[in-house]
Amino acid sequence: MTQLTVIPLGVGDAFSALYYSSCLAVGAGDDWLLIDCPHPIRKMLKESSETSGVKLDVGSFSAIALTHLHADHASGLEGFFYFSRFVLKRQPTLLAHRDALERVWPDHLAAGMDCLMDLEHQPKKMAANEYFEAVALSETQPHEIDGFAIECRKTIHHVPTTAFRIRLGDKCIAYSADTAFDMELIHWLAEADLVIHETNYGVHTPYEKLAELPPELRAKMRLIHYPDSFNLETSVIEPLRQGVIYEV
Length: 248
Hints:
- This protein is of the alpha/beta class.
- The chain has one domain (5-247): Metallo-beta-lactamase, Chain A (4-Layer Sandwich).
- The protein has helices at 41-52, 71-74, 77-88, 98-113, 183-189, 207-211, 215-219, and strands at residues 5-10, 23-28, 31-35, 61-65, 93-97, 115-117, 123-125, 133-137, 143-145, 148-154, 162-168, 171-175, 194-198, 221-224, 238-239, 246-247.
- The longest helix has 16 residues, at 98-113.
- The protein is globular.
């Protein structure tokens, strides 16, 4: 059975001076799925490739699964799609809940991407489907792509946000995305072999709440989206590290 591999490209929050914004590469063999896409995505991929020994670049991914539209999770989409169009000559897939998907083009990308000049400097009006294929994820049915089965569930956050469960055969990883503490969500995530959960201040999940979870759940949980002040050495739950390989 092929292993399910996770490489954190970034582990920090929107304000971090120490880490890249939270982002995951999920792989099985030669197939890779990108979870969120902050800027500078190619630099993040290059540095994680050097740390992990797994060579990754934009062309390694046929699809991005987007949790939500906050910039620390979505600011790299423009660069990813432009690089795919002009350099790779390919069209990736963007997977997201319909509530995020319906706003990603008009409210996030169009301002910088809805007009291209040709070599004669003549403008051409562009549409979203000329850069990527948009696929809406369902809260009731998994979506299959490149051997992965992706399930989503809404979280408690400022804007529409979804957690993910990603399956490959009998292996599963789960990612909370940004969320306030939600025990029902944690029960949903806990079906996975590896649970990646955020922790931060404000409308996020306090570390203290996660530290009170049963030991058997904490043992398969890893932390992400932590603030720069978070003490990695004293945490009773293992924090993810950028560029390190985690396998299920």
